[in-house]
Amino acid sequence: MKKFFLIILMIGMAAFLMATGSQGKEKVTELTYSIFFPPTHGQCKAAVSWAEEIEKRSDGRIKITIFPGGTLTKANQCYDGVVKGISDIGMSCFAYTRGRFPIMAVVDLPHGYPNGKVATRVATEFYKNMSPKELDDVKVLYIHGHGPGLLHTQKPVRTLEDMKGMKIRSTGLSAQVVKALGGVPVAMSQGATYEALQKGVVEGTFTPIETLKGWRQAEVVKYTTECTDVGYTTAMFVVMNLKKWNALPKDLQKMIEEVSEEWVGVHGDAWDKSDDEGRAYTLSKGNEIIVLSEEENQRWAEAVRPVIENYISSTEKKGLPGKKAVAQVKDLLAKYNK
Fold first, then answer.
1. Tens-place pLDDT, residues 37-55
2. What single string gives the DSSP state of each residue in 1-57?
3. pTM for this predicted structure
4. CB within 8 Å of 281: residues ≥ 6 apart
5. Does an H or E element contain 67, and which?
6. Residues 322-331 as b or e (16 or more Cβ within 10 Å = b)
7. What are the start-end ranges of the H helices in 131-249?
8. In whole angstroms, what is the distance from residue 142 CA to residue 122 CA?
């Protein structure tokens, strides 16, 4: 009988020690992060550094596993993947799901963005100021946007007339820009663009110059037209599953928000660095950069003006503040252009 009680006592003590020992250990939250950029791209590297900083500042309480190149969810499925919990965090373009984000779409209009740093600051602050309900089903960590979208083609485009009838890869509102300039928009993701250019499915692409290196597109185009006055951006989200976010302790939530705010600048700088590298890379391939005259730039700007006007009218008809959204972007552009 004594032996029996001794065994029970030992089991009880072991259970107590296990319980008290486990209380001293912090729970590790493991998160998955789906990114459509390939692992070699500057924006994927910026996201990896964000994840590493989160892990560092959380003292290991958060561990993030990254799935680059759309290996967990494809670019156009990334947002829904976060909502449904397929991934805990996701990065992709609003434009890959047309019509889903009518207010955020205003950021992508041809406002004449000078660089990625300005585009990223404008996109993030626009979201904070407008707080569109279309993003209420996720936790928005931050938003970033590339430098001015330019025209890259297989034959030279020096005037609006040269653009007429050309099949140009474009997404979201940039497709309307292509149409306004006389081209034929063809929707596809960046990942599919190289092969489409190579096979002649499209004759050009509207995209920031960084893609000429980041996505190797300088190998399948010969010319870049610097149509800076119609320079658009593509806003990209970094969002988190709401259930996973709400389950985090308040101190970790605060830390993630602080790091995310810092990484707005990191992504903006990365976009500009990538643009510089893309420019150098395409020139090294013997490709030509065509600089439009001031007069021709104005012709292009005038041609795309209806795109902005149509956005305002279509959103207002749906009861959405399209006019206010456009005015907000213009104000932010003026603020960050100083």
1. 999 989 999 999 999 999 9
2. -HHHHHHHHHHHHHHHHHHHHHHTSPPPEEEEEEE-S-TTSHHHHHHHHHHHHHHHH
3. 0.85
4. 212, 213, 218
5. strand 62-67
6. bebbbebbee
7. 160-163, 173-180, 190-199, 211-214, 242-247
8. 11
Give the pLDDT of residue 10.
47
Q: Which of 142, 105, 116 is nearest to 210 (CA)?
A: 116
What distance in Å separates the CA atoms of residue 142 and residue 260, rounded to the nearest whole number? 6
- What tens digit of pLDDT does each residue of 209-240 get? 999 998 999 999 999 999 989 999 999 999 99
Q: Collapse the DSSP code of 135 into the 3-class scheme (helix H, G, I; strand E, B; otherwise coil) and give the result.
A: helix
Beta carbons of 224 and 212 less than 8 angstroms apart: yes
Alpha-carbon gap, residue 335 to 124, rounded angstroms: 13
Give the number of other Cβ atoms within 10 Å of residue 122's Cβ.
Answer: 27
Q: By the 8 A CB rule, do 237 and 91 touch?
A: yes
**67: buried, middle or exposed (CB in 10 Å: 19+, 13-18, 0-12)?**
middle
Mean pLDDT of 84-102: 94
- pLDDT single digits (tens) 151-162: 999 999 999 999
Measured in degrees and rounded to the nearest 5, phi and psi for residue 333 equal: -60, -45
The structure tokens 């709400």 sit at 246
Residue 338 pLDDT class (50, 70, 90 cuts): confident
What SS3 class is residue 287? coil
